[in-house]
């Protein structure tokens, strides 16, 4: 009856439709009506995190499995729809997908041009393909390459410093000139 209270409840609880129906059992929805009112799942977009040269015929994705609790961390556990589904796949499973191009988001045409890459968390995905491409160019002796500096941020080095070994290898082999890391929730260090 009070729209403001409803909005506060909704944003604090973040309930799923199932949780709403469980909390208010007096709401009796015919299944046909319920099915016609459910929204279609929207596509999820992930950046490709592999270069075609070193990984021909493959596409790698970098996906963080989304889980969270509502109600200031005290509520029920919620799971991301697509990330959870992807995490449960088995080798050989089929994934319906399409590629959406981003023609302006790529390495410079001149390989000697310097690059600064800034990627927090899974946002490092497309940059992984960039340093893989540079490693491939180095192995092929493609000529002089410009400097490539990576700035990577995540919460904690031991928790989610993804691709650490690959970053170190790319730096040792000269594909990455420098790697700067920032950790926002490193244990024993102020945020």
* CATH topology-level fold name of the largest domain: Rossmann fold
CATH class of the largest domain: Alpha Beta
Low-confidence stretches: none
CATH architecture of the largest domain: 3-Layer(aba) Sandwich
Main β-sheet, in a few words? 3 strands, parallel
Looking at CATH, the homologous superfamily of the largest domain is Nucleotide-binding domain of ferredoxin-NADP reductase (FNR) module
Number of helices: 7
Q: Helix and strand succession?
A: HHHEEHEHEHHE
Radius of gyration: 22 Å
| Class computed from helices, strands and strand pairing | alpha/beta
Mass-distribution shape: elongated
- Integer average pLDDT: 91
**Strand residue content:** 5-15%
Question: How many angstroms separate the termini?
Answer: 42 Å
Whole-number total of structural domains: 2
Tell how many strands the DSSP assignment holds. Answer: 5
Biggest β-sheet: strands ordered side by side in the sheet: 3-4-5
How helical, in percent, are the residues? 25-40%
Family: Belongs to the NOS family.
Catalytic activity: 2 L-arginine + 3 NADPH + 4 O2 + H(+) = 2 L-citrulline + 2 nitric oxide + 3 NADP(+) + 4 H2O
Protein name: nitric-oxide synthase (NADPH)
Cofactor: FMN; (6R)-L-erythro-5,6,7,8-tetrahydrobiopterin; FAD; heme b
What do these coordinates show?
There is one protein chain. This protein has about 190 residues and is an alpha/beta fold. The protein has two domains: about 1-35, no CATH class; about 65-185, Nucleotide-binding domain of ferredoxin-NADP reductase (FNR) module (Rossmann fold), CATH 3.40.50. The chain contains seven helices and five strands; from the N terminus they run αααββαβαβααβ. The strands form two sheets. The protein has a three-stranded parallel β-sheet with strand order 3-4-5, with helices on one face. It has a two-stranded antiparallel ribbon with strand order 1-2. β1 (about 65-70) and β2 (about 75-80) form a beta hairpin. The chain is elongated.
């Amino acid at each position: 009856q009070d729209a403001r209270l409803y909005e506060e409840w909704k944003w604090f609880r973040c309930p799923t439709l199932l949780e709403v129906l469980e909390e208010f059992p007096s709401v009796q929805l015919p299944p046909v009506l319920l099915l016609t009112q459910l929204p279609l799942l929207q596509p999820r977009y992930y950046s490709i995190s592999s270069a075609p040269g070193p990984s021909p015929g493959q596409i790698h994705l970098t996906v963080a499995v989304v889980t969270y609790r509502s109600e200031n961390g005290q509520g029920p556990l919620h799971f991301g729809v697509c990330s959870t589904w992807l995490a449960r796949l088995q080798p050989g499973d089929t994934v319906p997908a399409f590629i959406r191009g981003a023609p302006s988001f790529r390495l410079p045409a001149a390989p000697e041009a310097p690059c600064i890459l800034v990627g927090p968390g899974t946002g490092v995905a497309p940059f992984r393909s960039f340093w893989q491409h540079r490693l491939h160019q180095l192995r092929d002796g493609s000529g002089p390459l410009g400097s490539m500096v990576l700035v990577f941020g995540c919460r904690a080095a031991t928790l989610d410093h993804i691709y650490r070994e690959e970053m170190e290898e790319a730096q040792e082999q000269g594909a990455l000139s420098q790697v700067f890391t920032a950790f926002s929730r490193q244990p024993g260090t102020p945020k």
